[in-house]
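2 proteins. here.
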Amino acid sequence: MKSKIAAAAFILLPFSGQYALAEEATEEKPELTVSAELGFLFKTGNTKSGDIKAGINLKHEKDQWLNMFAFNALAKKIETEDENGEDVFESTDNKWDITGQSNYSLEEGGKNYLYGSLFYQQDKFSSFSYQTSASFGWGRHWWETESSSFFADVGPGVKYDVIRAEPATATTLAIEEYSETAAIVQAQALYTKQINDFVEFKQYFVAKQAVESEKNSYYRAETSLTTKLIESLQFKFSFLVEHDTEVEEGFENTNTETSVTLVYSF
């Protein structure tokens, strides 16, 4: 009797394994994932100020398509005195940007892809009223494991900048603006490392290199560390560096931003 039971179990084992795989296959990743982040800093006492940083990221995967969208905004106000000696809040930072990119894999489950990307940034206190660019080209997933991934792409594009001749103030826009169009070569890369079940590290870099030497080139690097608090809520620390090679007098070439935010994924 025992031998018959053992034989029956042996015969059914492959089918039970197939059933488990089929059940596992049904647990597919969602096509659309969304995350939103928000951070506040308010100071009172000798210095009164308020900072707000917000962002939203969307990622859509279907068949051989991968679509990504990101929006980020930063605002800061500090309390100062006006010409009449009255306390007023003055904006010292007012910036937002949008990035969108679509990747099309050349073969299903393959590593090579074609991409198209768009970028727009508006910053009231930089050398540029706004900057925008578009690029298309080829990319590759150089490696992807359970704990880490690295992809990079490169291609030609065009960049259009509206440049300020003078810095803006809290109440006025910069005057004597002029525009500049430049052909660029864009290269970007993203490295992701899952350190453990709760901590993730990301390093992103993009370069928009102008073909003509006298035109402005733009570089951006962002390092972030995300810690999971609960299943859908994370704590994020990030450090951002932006560099423009050509800016008007009175503006800095390099700007940095350090932020701490809460990220909610759904």
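next one coming up
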Amino acid sequence: MFEKQNLIPSAEEFVAECPLPARLAAVKAERDALARDVIAGRSNKLLVVVGPCSAHESAPVLEYVRRLGELNERVKEKLVLVPRIYTNKPRTKGVGYKGMFSQPDPEHGEDIVKGIRTIRKLLLDAIAESGLSAADEMLYPENYAYVQDLLTYVAVGARSSENQMHRLVSSGIELPVGVKNPMSGSIPVLINSIFAAQSPQVFKYQNYQVRTSGNPYAHAVLRGRVDNYGNDIPNYHYETVMQVLDGYKNAEGGLSHPAVIIDANHSNSGKRFKQQIRIVEEVLQNRIYDADFKRIVKGFMIESFLVEGCQKHDEVFGKSITDPCLGWEDTERLILDIAEKA
């Protein structure tokens, strides 16, 4: 049965209550254009979506994005940095901490209304304090409307990429949407998801029948796969990237802007967070080796926070309470290295 607990106001009400000021809207518009240009191939820069596995508390996230904003000034000629501020956390077994959207305090119960207010303020503060607008995962398509005016990049997770509603909503987003390969690693399924997101659609959304024009900036994210025995199998290697390129080329009806982002963590690293450094370095070497590889690989997703590793409870400031992350020092060195080799 369903027990009604609290009435949640509409997205329009939350936006009116906590609007994006014109000054910050101009910053976000500029960042949006930079990200779109990378995916479309109009820019030779690399897109780097980097930040904690999940944003569980505002203060350390803001400290992280402030540092990232300062680092951006050193690398902006080569990279487009997008802070990863993920406010919804997928759970393999469906239970556990589900992110700031649901639980603004991870040590207490769900409070979605407070969660929405908390993440809107966090995303606004992040732009104001760093000059960078964020990425988030569209775990629940219905929730996207609450933050759509504040994001520059949207991710569709491996568990969601085969879901019809995720594909449909992605088709109406005017930002780069990174569609991860499904848990099985199927490239045809991934290409079909991108095709659906790039195609015009008509469907029910936010109590309306809506028509979308299709999103030409929907693209592939390779995050590794999981075999039938639960083993992590990486797919960032040259051979898989070339298979994705062939999928783009062979898609019936054609696809816009062939692009791949490499997720350096998850099943690519087996969640061994330090391996992200080695994975990024290998991909950078392959970009030097092969012109087609270089053209299609547009950047990276990297999980990092102020303090490396993870913890079960929020005791160490700036340390993940979900998956382990790189620490700031390693992150800074890695981003500078990516910029040097981009």
